[in-house]
Amino acid sequence: MSAQSPTEVFYHLMDLSVSDKEVYLKKLKSLQPELFKQVSPLLAVNKESEQFTELLGFHAHQATSIELDLTNTLIHKYHITHELGRGGMGIVYAASRADKTFEQDLAIKFIQPALTHVLGKKSLFDEAQLLAHLNHPYIAKVFDGGVYEGSVYIVMERVEGQTLCQYLASTPLTQNKKLNLFKDICLAIEHAHQNQILHADLKPENILIDANTSPKILDFNLTQKVSQSSKSKHTLLTAYSKAYASPEQMTGDYLTQQSDVYSLGKILSLLFPIEKPTSDIAHITDKAIQHQIKDRYSTVAEMRLDIESLLACRPISQKAHLPFYTAKMLFCRRPVQCALSCLLLLSGTTLSSMLIYQNQQLAQEKQIAENMMYEVTSLLFHAKGSDSAQMSVNSMLELTRRRILSNPNIPKDIKQKMLLAMLTPTPEKQVLKRNCTEGCTTP
Q: Which InterPro entries match (predicted)?
């Protein structure tokens, strides 16, 4: 055997069959006992992990087929009435207080005995105790817990309602109603995260919509803390729904808040299955379900704020740097004010343009008039003392007309006005002669 590190030997062993692994280890122990000692702890942890995974996988798979019927059973101070459902981790029954001191509609979840044995009662109770600390209107409340015939049970608030999928199928919702519903779900998960609790199994079946159309989050994954402290890569293989689980959850890596962000993104895509890739909802969904954790929203709160921005017609975080988009959202948010502002701006611009144009016209006409006065004055000045002095008025006008026509600085419309004024005939003066004898006036 060539010199190898303990890690290299460990990964090499992972690729071998059981028989080949035994042969390799015997040879390693005899030839390199020191290296064998370093590899042994790694093998022990891996073996424990594999056994844990096998047990989880087997019992979760068999959960729905286990013959367990606790209907009409009295368990401590609770009276079991009927089964509500069963899943990978256990069975849920409807129950009420047997002592009649409180009238409560309860749900009791019994964890499979084999899972209780593998995970440990203390770990399950510790996790249930954390859930009992949650106090949010959109999270089903955990009241109590205990052990019955080897099964840990957890007493919860019973919620009467439809699953999210059933609710969407039976109730037509506007975009804003869907967004408000999703915002409430985010608020519930955000509250759990603030208490250092992940859901780790978010899916439509674990979201009930009650009679008040409010969501209730159920079935937090009770194995999440155990799996994170066991340093195993495979302890969460059965504790999730594949359609809504994050990539790191499916590969058995440690979970973070962004694992729940991913599941929320999948739920958002369920609420809005047909969205244009350029829409704001599509942008929010795509960011939440990025494969790489670093590319997702860092917290549920960030995602919720974008949903609230969308409801308020404000720019979402990913597009806030786009000026045209920001202006569009402002117009959607305040259409009347924006329309009036645009109208005032347009009116002011138009009025300013007209005033500027008229000022330019007046200045131009003033300049032309000054030039023409100069032309006429110059003509009269040069006509004195020459043969041109006998020039008639008509000749003077004709000469002026020619100068106007030949002046390139005079606009055509001004030329036309000036020429029209020059063509207007001047009324002839009447000559009055007094006849002293007749006292009459003749032209």
A: Kinase-like_dom_sf, Prot_kinase_dom, Protein_kinase_ATP_BS, Ser/Thr_kinase_AS
